[in-house]
Design a protein that fits this description.
By secondary structure, the chain is α/β, with parallel strands linked by helices. It has 6 helices and 5 strands. The longest helix has 14 residues. Pfam families: Methyltransf_11 (PF08241).
Length: 190
């Protein structure tokens, strides 16, 4: 079950968040660019983008990418903007055979779920032995000055707990800190 609203019922909510991010975060594309570089150097031939939305990761890759990229999202509305191949499905029950992918990605997606461990187990199932999983998580203790307007309460998959949650399923984890770009807000007086 998701913690966030149904994007099919209100796709503009997702698009608004994306527009705000692109407009006010300096270098906002850099997270997807960073993940894209990791994938390009991974040697993977089949990659699953879990919770792909409208395809921000696909946009960060060369066209065509040097591997088969499949986007998976529960929102059919958002998927319409994602280049094919794309699959509308629940990440808790991925419609793929065991070992289908060499790599899987979940960019800022797992904290939207009540039980991210279930998606991690599904990702492990659809990954080939030795497959690569790249996940990102927000840090709830970052930017305390934003706590009045930014969700200060823990989510089920914060950066603080993410390594342990991933390790429970995959047995090992490598953590890389990535600092978010600078947030710039419009000056109403300008």
């Amino acid at each position: 079950m998701a913690l966030t609203p149904d994007y099919d019922a209100d796709p503009e909510r997702f698009r608004l968040a994306s527009r705000v991010t692109r407009r006010y975060l300096i270098g906002a594309r850099s997270l997807h660019d960073h993940i894209a570089v990791k994938l390009l150097h991974s040697g993977a031939s089949r990659v699953l983008d879990i919770g792909c939305g409208e395809g921000a990761l696909s946009d960060a890759l060369p066209h065509p990418p040097p591997f088969r990229l499949v986007g998976l999202d529960a929102s059919g509305v958002l998927l319409r903007a994602h280049p094919a191949p794309r699959v509308q499905a629940d990440a808790l029950r991925m419609p793929f055979r065991d070992g289908t992918f060499d790599a899987a990605v979940a960019v800022n997606m797992l904290y939207h779920l009540d039980d991210p461990g279930r998606v991690l187990r599904e990702a492990r199932r659809v990954l080939a032995p030795g497959g690569l999983l790249l996940v990102t998580a927000i840090c709830r203790t970052d930017s305390p000055e934003l706590s009045p307007v930014w969700r200060p309460e823990p989510t089920p998959f914060d950066a603080e707990e993410a390594p342990a949650r991933v390790c429970e399923v995959f047995g090992e984890v490598e953590v890389e800190r990535w600092d978010a770009p600078l947030l710039t807000l419009p000056d109403p007086a300008a």
